[in-house]
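The instructor's notes for this session suggest beginning with a concrete chain rather than abstract definitions. Hand out the sequence below and ask the class to guess, before any prediction is shown, which regions might be ordered.
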Amino acid sequence: MLDKENENIIKIAKEASPAVVSIVVTKDMPKVEGFYQMPYQGKKLMVPKIKKGEKESVKVGGGSGFLVSDDGVILTNSHVVHDPKADYTVVMDHEEEGQKHKVEVVARDPIHDIAICKMKGKDLPHLELGDSADIDLGQFVVAVGNALGEFSNTVSLGIISGLSRFIQAQPGGESRHAERLRGLIQTDAAINPGNSGGPLIDMNGKVIGINTAVVYGAQNIGFSIPINQAKKDIEDVKEYGRVRLPFLGVRYLILDENAKKQNNLPVDHGALIMREQLGDTAVVPGSSADKAGLKEYDIILEVEGKKITAKTTIQDVIQEHEIGDKVDMKILRKNKEHSVQVKLEEKKQ
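After discussion, reveal the predicted structure:
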């Protein structure tokens, strides 16, 4: 690599590092005052001895984030700050060791794995947001983050190795369901556990993505959320005080050949509207789906002309639309096809 390019990368790293923060996640947990041994199947297990009635603040996780304004607005991943019962603080690399700042989670966009946070301050170092619609395969990028939760402001260099990628990522927390993330930027710049929420920066020093996931077992493959989605979320928060997401309002089972055979169904694709468990509702009362007349056991075959399958779910198509859009659906009800138009409304927080 030419000296001039090296100098540019060094400049980007120096300018970006002060704006990249480490996010520390803590919770009040029962205080452990020691351990005792308990016999179990011929072995001795070490069991924590809990001090009754006392709790202590314990670090339970962490990640990365970056400042996008001089008054303390921070972007990170939704899965980094997913727990409403946890406390969040940030550590800035350029400050004295041990100095922490309390952070408020302003809004979460779990569909796109984005969170907007806020810390107190003024004249803070921050990064400029670029345009993720104007990027090319092969262009150089720099990833910055808190690698492995320990090594703050680790910088790695790579290229954009893929665009519009789809992955199934397992989120943190208590959710049993994997997150479906679409339209991602693929890069070979090293993204390690703990880098989640850090910026992906182009050679002009502007953020084009939020680092979100790594593929375990694979080499040199990481993914970032295009920054244009985060820019939209920030505008929503400025205008409405929250992230606004279009919402259909149905629970469903994606059908395939196996589901068709097992349940003696007439089709091998589509989404069968049904409740997941006793006490659930298949169609959320008052939702867009409810107002359009969708019913339990309807099968949604197509949305906006797109066939619904495991690779193209209802949520995937809905994400491409805005609140207020009208979407056309083809449904199967009692073995007869019907056309239905649904006006998308905002998902209630």
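Then share the key points. The longest helix spans residues 3-16. Residues 170-178 have pLDDT under 50 and may be disordered.
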